Amino acid sequence: MTPAFSGGIGLLVGLHIASWGAYKDAPYEGFRLISYLRSVLLAAAVAILITVLAPELATNIVVLVGAVYAIERLATEGWKSILREQDQTRYTIPMRLAFGGQPVNHNGIRYTAGAVLGSGTIAALLELNTLQHGLRPLPALLVILTVGSAGGWATAAGGAWKDAPIEGFSGWKFLRSPAVATAWAMLIFFLANNWVALLLASSGFAVASIETYKTFLTGGRPPGKFLGRPVQAHLPALRNLFAHQHAILWMAIAAAFAATLTDPHRGLPHNSADIVFPEVPSTLLATAAIAAGGLGTLVIYTSGRRRTQEIEASHPPPKTQLSTTRDEPSIP
User: Fold this and answer.
1) Whole-angstrom Cα distance, residue 172 to residue 179?
2) Domain definitions of the chain by residue range
């Protein structure tokens, strides 16, 4: 996979991320082109760097998409939490690193925490890569349940740290990310023979799935960070465009899963004691293709209904004027 080709894949991943981000935030802060392009360009750069520096994370398009998604989200959320200088009173839930729901405004503390978290994450991924080659073969199910779900557990912990002091702790929300990451890991396991790639790609697809659900399939519920905040802009046409963009890119991902079905080298050797039956990857790939295409279809359907409701709300039917005169009795 060449850097140029990977960069193109990264651009598409960035467009997928930017579409749900702009769709859910635009009513509360307007559409900001810089924010939209940030994810697109960052994802393209991440994809190129992966191909050049860590080609084991780009064994095929599906794994690359998931890994780029995870790294872009990690980098962007890290920047928002640690480095970005912004008034946090505009949010119901602070986007900056917070303790007990209160943002940490001291730069030294915040930068130190960011350095510890960033270096710790990199060290953990490097150690995981070393550990894979130092252990005896492990059962596939054990690898999926531990390595494949690890990114989901990390996402759940970070989300609970940020949201729970404001919204309260939700067991369902906490378990959602690791459960979805594990489901994706059941497929990614057969496409990536590297544990770091398995962790990143599974968590990346989990983020993509959950954000699609929260943004498009929850009946227009506002994002938690803007809960209770007034709507500042009504942009039905623009949001409809982003919804269709998001849906089309899900269908492109579905096509990538389907194309992988015809790849004779899709199954990679693993450090695993389990016997992998050839029909299992095919079944999982077909299921993933259907799921991705189904998500795209649902996004188009729900966004179309919501746009119709918004248009009807902005153009209510004229009220029928009631007569104020009494009917005179008829004279026979």
Assistant:
1) 10
2) 3-309
Q: What is the pLDDT of residues 33-70, one digit of tens each?
A: 999 999 999 999 999 999 999 988 888 899 999 999 99
- Residues 176, 210: contact at Cβ < 8 Å? yes
Q: What is this structure's pTM?
A: 0.87
Residues 258, 51 contacting (CB under 8 angstroms): no
> What Cα–Cα distance (Å) separates residue 251 from each residue in 1, 297, 300?
22, 8, 11
* DSSP calls for 16-82: HHHHHHHHHHHHHH---HHHHHHHHHHHHHHHHHHHHH-GGG-SSHHHHHHHHHHHHHHHHHHIIII
Instruction: Using DSSP, state whether 103 is helix, strand or coil.
Output: strand
Q: What share of the chain is helix, strand, coil (3-state, %, to 5)?
A: 70, 0, 25
Q: What is the pLDDT of residues 29-41, one digit of tens each?
A: 989 899 999 999 9
The number of C-alpha atoms within 13 Å of 316 and in the hemisphere containing its C-beta is 4
